[in-house]
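During the reporting period, our protein records have gained a structure token line. A sample record is set out beneath this paragraph:
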Amino acid sequence: MNDHSEHKERRRFSRIGFDADVQLVDARGSWQSRLIDLSLKGALVAIPPEWSGQPGERFLLEFALDAGDEAVIRMEASVSHQENDHIGFRCEHIDMDSISHLRRLVELNLGDAELLERELSALAKD
């Protein structure tokens, strides 16, 4: 079994492709990038120019659900991995408004209420 399939088998949260601008912020500054996909537990982001983050470091990720929409998802996340042209972030904390927006987005994209409930249950156990 290769590393990719092992990683996929360990994943308990469905990833939703979502193309949006994302801002990454820490004490050193901020970076603009593109969101590639997200799940209830994290996000995959294109590496922005001048990126200097390292695994384990924490950032605030912020992105709007729609260009004209006021619905914004904000999550505190740590860098879980960095490969080729993307960074994987693990959600460490998310506010109630943001998790509500994220849950609805995942629900609409999964189209499977039972799968969503399993993922929410797994999230509560983490």
Remarks:
- The first strand starts at residue 16 and ends at 26.
- The radius of gyration is 14 Å.
- The mean pLDDT is 82.
